[in-house]
Amino acid sequence: SSRVILNSLAKLKQLDKIEEFLKNKAVIRVLPKQEGLAYISYVHLHNSNTKQVIADFTANKNSMTKPIHPAIIFNAAESYFRQASYSKSIRLFDEFISQYSFLSKSGEARLRIALSYDLNGGDPKKILKLYKDAINKSSTLDTRYEAKLRYVGFRACRKRELDDSCLLYTSPSPRDGLL
User: Fold this and answer.
1) pLDDT tens profile 101-147
2) Angle CA(31)–CA(37)–CA(38) in degrees, nearest 5?
3) What is d(CA 21, CA 156) in angstroms, rounded to the nearest whole number?
4) Peptide bond before 67: cis, by omega within 30 degrees of 0?
5) Which of 59, 6, 64, 66 is nearest to 34 (CA)?
6) What does the alpha-carbon distance between residue 53 and residue 40 come to, in Å, rounded to a whole number?
7) Going by C-beta distance under 8 Å and a sequence separation of 6 or more, which residues neighbour residue 15?
8) What does the pLDDT look like over 14-49, one tens digit per residue?
9) For residue 54, which of 83, 94, 14 has the smallest C-alpha distance?
10) Residue 49: exposed, middle, or buried by beta-carbon count in 10 A (0-12, 13-18, 19+)?
11) How far apart are CA 150 and CA 154, in angstroms?
12) pLDDT value at residue 47
């Protein structure tokens, strides 16, 4: 019953109530600490509080028993990704896939790994292979679709040299005569 309550509070994004609920002595006795941390990290990530997710993960990772809860690993990896710490996110996403490849989020983890290599300017052949893996091994339609778009976009961009016509301007340039 405590899992149902936590799940409901997480869907409502009520972090204060989750933390209050997890301090209850009866809940502490029956609910593993990692599960409570997983719910808290989910809400922090949803609220774009990536620094807190990483701080909680870093503070608790040495005291966690293996296997670490999949939501904790995934949320920490996603937080590192959102903060552009791609090498750390790749390492955690790899750990997530190696332990939890049967979960539907593993396809999203594969896509994030490919995108991390892409954003870091990695080897184009390896990036294409990673995008193909994300397409072929994803169980969700949205992830496969995004991986296909990124794969096609990556291939199209690498076939020609980038010049000024390929760049997206977010502000008017002097040559537009708007300044």
Assistant:
1) 999 999 999 999 999 999 998 888 899 999 999 999 999 999 999 99
2) 95
3) 51
4) yes
5) 64
6) 8
7) 40, 43, 44, 47
8) 777 877 887 787 877 778 888 888 888 888 888 899
9) 83
10) middle
11) 6
12) 84
Q: Residue 148 is encoded by which pair of tokens?
A: 């296909």
Residue 69, amino acid: H
Q: Give CA–CA dist 168/178, Å, rounded.
A: 16
Give the pLDDT of residue 144: 94
Angle at 100 between CA 31 and CA 104, to 5 degrees: 95
Predicted confidence band of residue 159 (pLDDT cuts 50, 70, 90): low
> What is the pTM (predicted TM-score) of this model?
0.79
> Sign of dihedral through CA atoms 108, 113, 119, 124?
negative
Fill in the amino acid letter for 116. Answer: S
- Give the per-residue pLDDT at 109: 97
Q: How many residues does the chain have?
A: 179
Helix ranges (DSSP H) in 47-164: 50-60, 70-82, 86-100, 105-119, 124-137, 141-158
Quick one: DSSP state of residue 140?
A: S
